[in-house]
Amino acid sequence: MNQRLRSAIPYILLILLTTPILIGYLWLFISSMSIRTYGLRPEGFTLENWRFLLEPIRSRPSIWRVLLSTLAFALPLGLLDVIISSAAGYALSRLKFPGRRLFLSLTIILHAFPSATLLIAIFFVLRFIKLYDTIIGVVLVSVSLGLPLGIWLMKGFYDNVSWDIEMAALIDGCSRLRAWWSVILPIIRPGLAALLIFSFLGGWGAYIIPYTFLATASIQPISVYLQSLTGDYTFVNYGVVTAVGLFQLIPVLIFYMFTQRYLLNLYSGGMKGAA
Amino acid sequence: MPRLQRLRSGLTPLLFLGPAALLVTLFFFLPVIITGLISLTDLATSTFAGRWHFIGLGNYQRMRISPYTVKIFTNTATYVICTLTFFNVGMALVISLLTTSINKTAGSLFRVLWLLPRITPSVIYVIMWQYMLADAPSGILSQFVTTVLGAEAKNWLYSYPMVAVIIANGLIGTSFGMIIFTSAIESIPPEYMMAARVDGASSWQIIRRITIPLIRWPLLFVTAYQTLSLLTSFEQILLLTGGGPGFYTTEVWALYAYHTALSNYWGNTEFGFGSALAAVLVVIGIIASVVYLRVFRFSAMVAEPKIEVL
Fold this sequence. Notes:
The structure holds 2 protein chains of 2 kinds.
Chain A: H1 2-32, E1 34-38, E2 41-45, H2 63-94, H3 100-112, H4 119-128, H5 135-159, H6 163-171, H7 176-187, H8 189-205, H9 208-213, H10 222-230, H11 238-267
Antiparallel strand pairs in A: 1-2
Helix pairs in contact in A: 1-11, 2-5, 2-8, 3-5, 5-8, 6-7, 8-11, 10-11
Chain B: H1 3-38, H2 58-65, H3 67-101, H4 104-114, H5 116-119, H6 122-132, H7 140-149, H8 156-159, H9 161-186, H10 190-198, H11 203-214, H12 216-232, H13 235-240, H14 253-262, H15 271-295
Helix pairs in contact in B: 1-15, 2-15, 3-4, 3-9, 3-12, 9-12, 12-15, 14-15
């Protein structure tokens, strides 16, 4: 008995520590389908909170337009991140060229480097290249800030691919570019997919960069839209806010359920083996 | 090697690295230089005429004598030290020790749950906290406190803003250390533990004498890496409290720089002073990153490729 009690202790501790995290999600579910909530206790079941799916909330853009602008931001972000990172990662893993060591060191340094401190200067860069207040500008900034991690992860994937396969392709007369594209890339497909999802989800939930650099644009991603709902003091209806929040969160949770094994490594910044 | 071939093999890396190099230059290197340059000007909306007027170290002088600097610095130190100690390292260690001591499937289930705050879009995450900490009758904590403990309800976010900021950020931050510690603990040979058990060591003794010493490198790494990350990230604080309530109660250095240069309540955005504030963090960031590179034996990672053809 004593033995059984002892082995239950870690479970009890874990449940106690984990519950506070889950309460917020539980509330999100309950509140999105209630007229109002007192703590976690709902009052009055309703689907009225979900009306935003059918018609815009007040004078705001329709949710589908918001969804489109979010995709217009997150999809190119994911794709560009994967393409550019996988190309650069390949060069760092496989090619010998002057400056390779320097470039690789820089990648690692930038990986640790706090990009949030550069936002002020990036504002000037964007204005200088005339991309301030444009989706392209916001996508390029977001891609760049994600590159050090992406390149580093991709290099790790290439490092695990056997040289023999590539050597065989090269001996058969493939160019380096072709060997990469048609032989190596298919092998690391799971890695590419993981980075794509990771990067897409980053864009899907991004707030600070679109908020800062898309000041007046009529296109706003869903995080900025949701935040503007909570900031509207003439209209704070938590039922609606949570319904919109859930609308944004559900795809994230679904992706997470299917890919958590890969994502777990990515969210630690690919640093599992670093120290 | 024929000349043409040499040219081609020189072009290949350029082709692969070109786009990355261009973007990194545009949005990392150039901004570092620009931050430094702007910090030497008095560029602000009130002086904005497209011309840069250099004022030397004026902004740094102002930072040194400003009465707010001490307040902001204290906030930042409190925030970073507490979040790091209690969550990013402390809680991360507790969770990884607990989840590795139980059934493997159950353990990874708990870790999956602990990653939820990190994958949740920040705006939603913060809304949850605002509601949890709200006053009665709606707030979850207030409801719990009044009905279960019989204590007084209050707006927790207003009463203890810094604590709220630390907990909300800490629960996100825990997962990074958790993942790294878990894989470090799992790679400890089980014989070590078994031998200690046979010798009659308690769980606490095993953790204290075997596990912790064996994972000291990951511990040091997470501490170093997360210090920098906490020092410079401000998105959740911006959303949760916006630096308030009241006068700079939760305003940390990075948020102060952001507010000063890009969005403040008074409409006068001071790019020069804001950049000087950011430059301090940039310098810390550069020094810290270079130190990490040396301390954590990253040099082994930048080794030449094993085999090289062509």
